[in-house]
């Protein structure tokens, strides 16, 4: 799963593993991107390069994903949050941070907030995990359920079919980086890692709720209401409508959960590709929150 030579960035030793991290820019608070399941740090390079124009920007791969060393997946949110804190210290990126989690990364950002509240200035959620999901998405097809990991044959099929998506996603990335991402994403190993990471969503929800309140920090929640291509094939129109309406309620609730919170709806952006579907809107949210907490 791991390559000794990522196309950008370097490895740092944390908890006996080599973890990939790439940082650019100067100043603070540093902006730290937390990838979604199946994604890696360099998937957000287009946003990272622009953020680095006004502060330090950090991309990384969790252990078990991308160019970081393999570990047994899935893991608890506490394990991932603690690992990230140690990695940022090893890389010389001082707190406080503006966290920018996408999808599953939201669970890890929420746990980071619970464990290390003094080290977080604010959060920009990119259609991210929020533990109140089942409160607002109550349909049988939209509730949080355990996600079984597909077999190798299905993973090979998904990897093959996904190449076109990744070619479009990384069309504007530097050639060497884009080609490396396409090649690695279209492997069974990377596809399996993503499936394993998203396999314990109900447990992550329960972990966050059992840990108590998430500290009140400024946030902007971005809701991507476009429909992923895969969802169109797997869900009925009714289920898709319920999901869209439920997500609108969910992220409105997230925005209202803190004193300095805000929700911004992106009708044309899709969950998996929010960073390439609406990069200007995402960058604007990061810039707005960063300036607010700076």
Q: Gist?
A:
The chain is an alpha/beta fold and 294 residues long.
Kindly report how far apart the N and C termini lie.
38 Å
What is the general shape? Answer: globular
Average pLDDT reading = 93
Beta strand %: 15-25%
Annotation, overall tally of beta strands = 8
Q: What kind of sheet is the major sheet?
A: 8 strands, mixed
If strands are numbered along the chain, what order do they take across the biggest sheet? 1-2-4-3-5-6-7-8
The assigned CATH architecture is 3-Layer(aba) Sandwich
According to CATH, the fold-level topology is Rossmann fold
Tell me, what is the CATH class?
Answer: Alpha Beta
Broad structural category: alpha/beta
Q: How helix-rich are the residues, as a percent range?
A: 40-55%
InterPro entries: AB_hydrolase_1, AB_hydrolase_fold, AB_hydrolase_sf
GO molecular function: catalytic activity
Protein name: Pimeloyl-ACP methyl ester carboxylesterase
Pfam families: Abhydrolase_6
Q: What's the SSE blueprint?
A:
Layout: E1 10-14, E2 17-24, E3 30-34, H1 45-51, E4 57-60, H2 77-90, E5 97-101, H3 105-115, E6 120-126, H4 133-136, H5 152-169, H6 175-185, H7 188-197, H8 201-210, E7 219-226, H9 229-234, H10 237-255, E8 261-270, H11 274-277, H12 279-293
Parallel strand pairs: 3-4, 3-5, 5-6, 6-7, 7-8
Antiparallel strand pairs: 1-2, 2-4
Overview of the molecule:
Residues 31-284 form the AB hydrolase-1 domain. It comes from Nonomuraea endophytica. It is a single chain. This protein has twelve helices and eight strands. The chain has one domain (10-144, 201-293): 3-Layer(aba) Sandwich (Rossmann fold). The protein is an alpha/beta fold and 294 residues long. The radius of gyration is 18 Å and the shape is globular. The mean pLDDT is 93. Helix 2 crosses helix 3. It has an eight-stranded mixed beta sheet with strand order 1-2-4-3-5-6-7-8, with helices on both faces. It has helices spanning 45-51, 77-90, 105-115, 133-136, 152-169, 175-185, 188-197, 201-210, 229-234, 237-255, 274-277, 279-293; strands spanning 10-14, 17-24, 30-34, 57-60, 97-101, 120-126, 219-226, 261-270. Helix 1 links the parallel strand 3 and strand 4. It is 44% helix and 18% strand.
């Amino acid at each position: 799963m791991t390559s000794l030579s990522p196309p950008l960035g370097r490895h740092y030793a944390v908890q006996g593993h080599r973890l990939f991290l790439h940082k650019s820019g100067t100043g603070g608070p540093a902006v730290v991107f937390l990838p979604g399941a199946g994604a890696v740090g360099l998937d957000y390079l287009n946003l990272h390069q622009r953020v680095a124009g006004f502060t330090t920007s950090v991309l990384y791969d969790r252990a078990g994903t991308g160019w970081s060393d393999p570990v047994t997946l899935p893991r608890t949110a506490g394990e991932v949050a603690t690992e990230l804190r140690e990695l940022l210290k090893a890389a010389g990126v001082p707190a406080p941070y503006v966290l920018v989690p996408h999808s599953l990364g939201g669970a890890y950002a929420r746990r980071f907030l619970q464990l290390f509240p003094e080290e977080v200035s604010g959060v920009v959620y990119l259609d991210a995990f929020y533990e109140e999901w089942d409160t607002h998405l109550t349909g049988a097809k939209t509730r949080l359920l355990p996600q079984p990991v597909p077999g190798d044959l299905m993973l090979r099929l998904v990897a093959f079919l996904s190449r076109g998506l990744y070619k479009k996603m990384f069309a504007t990335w530097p050639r060497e980086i884009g080609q490396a991402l396409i090649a690695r994403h279209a492997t069974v190993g990377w596809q399996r890692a993503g499936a394993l990471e998203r396999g314990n969503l109900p447990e992550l929800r329960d972990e966050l709720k059992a840990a108590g309140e998430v500290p009140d920090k400024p946030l902007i929640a971005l809701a991507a209401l476009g429909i992923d291509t895969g969802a169109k094939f797997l869900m009925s129109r009714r289920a898709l409508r319920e999901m869209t309406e439920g997500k609108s309620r969910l992220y409105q609730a997230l925005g209202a959960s803190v004193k300095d919170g805000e929700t911004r709806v992106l009708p044309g952006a899709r969950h998996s590709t929010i960073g390439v579907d609406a990069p200007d809107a995402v960058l604007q949210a990061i810039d707005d929150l960063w300036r607010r907490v700076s």
